[in-house]
Amino acid sequence: QNLRYCSMEQVFQVPYTTISEILTKFIGSLYETYSPWLFNNYRWYSRRARYYRRCIMARHEANGYDEINQELLDVIGFLDGTRLHISRTTDQPVGNEDVTWSGKIKAHCMNVLDITFPDAMRCISRCYPGSMHDANIFSIDQMRVGVNANFGADGIHEFNALLYADSAFAFEQHVTPAHKRQPGQQHLDEELEDENTMMAQCRVAVEW
User: Fold this and answer.
1) Do residues 106 and 82 lie in contact, with contact meaning Cβ atoms separated by under 8 Å?
2) What is the pLDDT of residues 60-118, one digit of tens each?
């Protein structure tokens, strides 16, 4: 990580922690100003929903899955969070009191939600502190507003478009989650396990 900032340290004569902080603020400013035009045009994604659904179904057929849960037929993209490592600035506390500290990956980071579609188009949330959970970010970010406003069956694609995500998003209107074991259940039913595997394979195929 230090090597990435080495030349910039020499050019600007500031430590890489300062460069990291400046870049984070710069990216956040770009997002706030230009996101509706650059990469979060939900209307565009909505108009391509039929095409996305056909691509995902083609992947299922190529993998040999003939019988598919009806709800999965309407999946057009994949929602997930990713944590971006950052350098802790000197004015931040260390450990659990630091909002950028993620107990999940044991590092300082920012958390970003990402929706990936079969044509490699992506919808990205703004950056949030690494300690924030993916579902909490989705509940407050404009990404949720855009998805709910444009993914319904309103005559454009004539079906309720869904995003596939993990079980943390289970109660969202346009999200269908991976199957999860019930309390006291040691293993998923074979059919449900197959569906999880099927969607995981497709998810890898669209996340280049």
Assistant:
1) no
2) 677 666 666 666 778 888 888 888 888 765 555 555 457 888 888 888 888 888 888 88
| Distance (Å) of CA 44 to CA 37, 90, 127, 137, 173 | 11, 42, 23, 23, 20
pTM for this structure?
Answer: 0.68
CA distance 176 to 132: 21
Q: Name the residue among 121, 180, 153 with its Cα closest to residue 50.
A: 153
